[in-house]
Structures are given as structure tokens and as C-alpha cells.
Design goal:
- The chain has 47 residues and is an all-alpha fold.
- It has a domain at 5-36.
- It has helices spanning 9-12, 16-21, 24-36.
- The longest helix has 13 residues, at 24-36.
- It is globular.
């Protein structure tokens, strides 16, 4: 089983303050890259 994405080194260095300073689009991009890497396809584990 793979590691949860919030336990990755990149996610651990992300602070709440940094998130609050981001625009909605910036935050979406950061969290999308944390979860699904930089791939263009976002895949739900339910489908």
C-alpha cells in the first residue's frame, strides 16, 4: 500500500500560513500536485 499523500515531504513542509497567503487557484494547484503529482489526469479512487 502506498503512503498517504499528506505524509510526503512536500506536504509536511507546507504551513497553514502559506496556504492562507495563497489565492484559491494557487492552493488548488498545490494540493492537486501533492495528491496527483503533475499529471494532467486527476483520478478518483472511487471510479
Amino acid at each position: 500500500m502506498s503512503q498517504h499523500f499528506l505524509l510526503s515531504a512536500k506536504a509536511r513542509t507546507l504551513s497553514v500560513r502559506k496556504v492562507f497567503e495563497m489565492s484559491n487557484d494557487e492552493a488548488f494547484t498545490v494540493f492537486r500536485e501533492l495528491r496527483w503529482s503533475k499529471s494532467e489526469e486527476v483520478v478518483s479512487p472511487c471510479h
